[in-house]
Amino acid sequence: EGKSVLVVGGAGYIGSHMIHLLRDLNIRHVVLDDLSSGHREALQGSRLIEGNCGDATLLRNVFAEHDIDAVIHFASFIEVGASVRNPAAYYENNVCNTVTLLSEMVRADVKKFIFSSTAAVYGLPETSKIDESHRKGPINPYGRTKLMVEEILGDFEKAYGLRSVCLRYFNAAGAHPDGAIGENHNPETHLIPLAIAAAITREKVLKVFGDDYDTRDGTCVRDYIHVCDLADAHLLALKYLNQNEASLAANLGNEAGFTVLEVIDAVSRLAGQVPYEVAARRDGDPAVLVADATRAREVLGWTPQYTDVNDIVSHALQWYRKIAA
Ligand code: UDP
Hints:
The protein has helices at residues 13-24, 56-65, 80-85, 87-107, 141-160, 191-201, 227-243, 260-271, 294-300, 309-324, and strands at 4-8, 29-33, 48-50, 68-73, 112-118, 163-169, 171-173, 206-209, 221-222, 224-226, 248-252, 258-259, 276-279, 288-289. The chain is α/β, with parallel strands linked by helices. Belongs to the NAD(P)-dependent epimerase/dehydratase family.
């Protein structure tokens, strides 16, 4: 009682689904978000402190005013291509600002941290499913920023006793089934919302980035995981930190892969024909990225609910219709 969870980046895509869940469960929380890409409406009235987690003075005030027990950190830049063109911004925001946040946590004696990591920490897969022991070798600055933070967390645990759960997301997708929140990136770069927009507006032709990969139909295979299932995993991670003395890194994925053409097919069935053309490969895209999520299931007790790609697409579609209306 009385303790709050600080959700950094709570106004963003995955963060807002976390906030929705915390509200549903009456878990006290405060959001810190600079609204650089998040949306105030997505908070549905949850307490927002507007600012960046690289602002040490602001953080000091937040930790002094609120009785914070744990921090969940969603605020980061997420575009692989942009990280190649502008690595400075990525290292600054994803690494430096996170170090500031962690240092202020240590200063305020807040010792539980849940971090949005990514399958991009692995780089090119050496096995058909990737488990957490897979070699780490990110192939772009974005992935390197996430791996660096994971390594920094190891050092912070040894030196300061700050414990963490690093959740390595595969492809976050979908929207809350109640229709209240969803994905709203600007610019949008993700496959499912782009395919839906192409099907509905018929204004833009979806570009399929490469059809000569070594996969069943030549297009890339990805493991799409529903955003509400991701939020659930964070709640379990919080429980884990309350009940265990250790830190953890765990993959979050459905352990099933869909090709780009299979996703287009699912969208076509639910939203209408997706106009598409085959384009060049996108830099930094491995052919296949599929999770082995045994650890999340066994150690965190995680059971994803929306494992059917049709559910993921139909929730995304419901949200698309709402924001397009
Ligand atoms: N993709 C595509 N056309 C697009 C966007 C994405 O063919 O306009 C492909 C992309 O190459 C990858 C998959 O769809 O194989 C998922 O990409 P997304 O950007 O959604 O997520 P990422 O894997 O980069 O996190």
